[in-house]
Structure formats: C-alpha cells, structure tokens
Amino acid sequence: MSDPELEAIRQQRLAQLQAQYKGNNANDKQAMEERMQQMEEMKHVILTQVLDQSARARLNTLRLGKPEKGKMVEEMLLNMAQRGQLPGKLGEKELIDLLENVNQQTQKKTTVKFDRRRAAMDFDDDMDL
Predict the structure, then answer these.
(1) How far apart are CA 51 and CA 6, in angstroms?
(2) Which of 63, 74, 109, 122 is most buried (most C-beta within 10 Å)?
C-alpha cells in the first residue's frame, strides 16, 4: 500500500471511531435525561400526595421567590414522607408552620455596630472647614 491509501484508511477508521463515540455519548446523555425526568416526576407525585392544593401552590410560590429555600423545603418534605413522619396531607397552615420553623433554624443573626464616637469626630471635622 502506498502512503495516500494508508492515510485514507486511517481517516476512515478515525471517522468511524468518532461516530461511534458520539453515538454512545448521545445515548448516555439521553439515558441520564430520562432518569432525571423520572426522578422529577416521582418527586412531584410524592409532593402531590403529601400536600393539598393550597400548600402546593404556596410551595411553588416559595420556589419562584427563593429557589434555594424552596428546594430545601421540598427535600425536607420528601424525606419526612419517606420516613413516615407526615400523618397525612399537609394543609397550607401546616406548611406555613413548617416554613416558620425552617426560618428560625436557618436565620442568620446579623448585627450592625455603629461607632458614634467616630461618626461624631467625622462630623466635627467637617464643621471646621
């Protein structure tokens, strides 16, 4: 075989391997997306069983306003449902109580310290101009 023929064969084989790799990669991505979609559907089914319509609407509103907190509350509800800690469907009132408990636990205490002496000195310095 001459060099151009060998090079052509190499190019064909390389193209075949790349096409095969892309095909496997696409199948993996598709399978992953399907698994994620199934997990989301299961999550929605469990939340529908655990929450009544008004509580579900409040949770969706929370997810729109504060996505991190909404996701955290959803995960907490799913864990509680899997452990059997929820007696039945939660109403809006029970969800609000749960959200208040979460807020108390996750609330960060922020304090503002204002040094009046420094502010007074700065003010006096400005007056001397």
Answers:
(1) 67
(2) 74
